[in-house]
Amino acid sequence: MITATATAILAIATKVDIAVFVASAVIVLAGAIGVVVSRNPVHAALFLVLTLFGVAVLFVAQEAHFLAAVQVIVYAGAIVVLFLFVIMLLGVDRQENLMVEPLRAQRPLAFLLGVIALGEIFLLAQGTHWATGASQVAGPAGGPGSNVEKLARILFTRYLLAFEATSVLLVIAVVGAVVLARRSETTAAESPAAARVENPLSPTSEEPLSDEPLSAEPLSTEPLSTEPLSAEPLPAASDEPNSAPTGAR
User: Fold this and answer.
1) How does pLDDT run along the chain (249 residues), one tens digit per residue?
2) Domain boundaries, the chain
3) Going by CATH, does the domain composed of 8-95+113-138 fall within 1.20.120.1200?
4) Close Cβ partners of 51 (under 8 Å, ≥ 6 residues apart)
């Protein structure tokens, strides 16, 4: 009875693992195809995020929780954000014409490399036993001898120099970014006239405004004259021609 129950539970768990594996594989393939087919680089980067999340689910199915967290935090978080920043900075977020090949024979070469990669994957898959059950691959992440503990031990013993060098490089990058930001702020503060758009109507700094109040002259309160205007007739024009001066004859 106990053996039959355990066998049924194992069969259900195996079916769930297979379903998770198939769903994750479909997500990864759909995201990868979207990266290649998308004309907009921003859409391609978002499809890449979908692919990386599918890979993280596969890591979780194999109980490699640390690798799944790194996949989401580092790749789907930092790397894709860096891609989007570069895309926005360079201004290549417009749609590209896929019919124009920047490199000669680009499509045949890409097709050949894709066929070679698929052939290598097929050859590797023939002699490999693919276990979808999580219990057959690794133990629980928090238990003794887990992949997290082994990774931490190797990272801080065998690869300690590389780990410290990476930490120093990251600190240098952060300090350099802070120094560049402070230098730009100092330059803008030292030369405010270069960053200000001059307006001819606005007062300059060399001519301060006067504190004296403006004189408000009262308007005249004299009443307007009510006398009617004199309508004098204009003199009639003479029809006789002008006589020439006597001295001119």
Assistant:
1) 556 565 655 566 677 888 888 899 999 999 999 998 888 888 888 999 999 999 999 998 888 888 888 889 888 888 888 888 888 877 765 555 656 666 777 788 888 998 999 898 888 877 766 555 444 444 444 455 567 788 888 888 899 999 899 999 989 988 988 888 887 666 666 655 554 554 545 555 455 555 565 555 656 566 565 565 555 665 555 555 555 455 444
2) 8-95+113-138
3) yes
4) 27, 28, 31, 32, 35
